[in-house]
Specification:
The chain is of the alpha+beta class. The protein is built from 3 helices and 7 strands; from the N terminus they run βαβββαβαββ. The chain has helices at residues 13-31, 89-104, 119-123; strands at 3-8, 45-51, 57-64, 74-80, 110-115, 128-136, 139-146. The chain has a 7-stranded mixed beta sheet, with helices on both faces. Strand 2 and strand 3 form a beta hairpin. The longest helix is centred in the N-terminal third of the chain and has 19 residues, at 13-31. It starts with a strand and ends with a strand.
């Protein structure tokens, strides 16, 4: 069972911030190749942390405030630890992320910049492709939008 917690950047505290950055680096830098993960957007975001039964951070995403990257709120940095992949953790993370978007910005559209190979995964949450693939940090991506409800 995953224990979810939502935090604004200033409320994360050093332990949550450290755990989030460590998991992000483990996945985005070590697994996927070097790039600058702290991109200056974390301060204008909600951070969703998912901790497993032992208390370790096993899933994470951030929701960037509307007007920072896009007009809409934007989900990004969606990650699960390698040891929990394949058991539905990614779907649970996105479901909680979408629920948080609805709580904070009811009825608003949500935009993502998704790794292109995950397009079908995000289709399952109501996202549709917007435009052509592009390269971001050496990985093919596609913008996707979930229309306002």
């Amino acid at each position: 069972m995953t224990r979810w917690s939502w935090h604004r950047f200033a409320e994360l505290g050093v332990d949550n911030l450290y755990d989030a950055l460590q998991l992000r680096c483990r996945v985005f830098v070590l697994e996927q190749g070097p790039y600058l993960d702290p991109d200056g957007v974390d301060r204008q975001s909600w951070h969703l942390l998912g901790r497993g039964a032992e208390g370790a951070l096993v899933s994470y995403l951030r929701v960037v405030d509307p007007g920072v990257k896009y007009d809409e709120p934007s989900i990004g940095r969606v990650i699960t630890a390698p040891e929990v992949r394949g058991n539905g953790s990614g779907r649970a993370l996105m479901a909680e992320g979408m629920a948080g978007c609805e709580r904070h910005w009811p009825g608003h559209a949500v935009r993502i910049s998704a790794q292109a190979h995950l397009e079908r995964f995000y289709n399952g949450f109501g996202f549709a492709r917007v435009g052509e693939n592009y390269i971001e940090d050496t990985i093919p991506h596609v913008q996707m939008l979930r229309s306002a409800t």
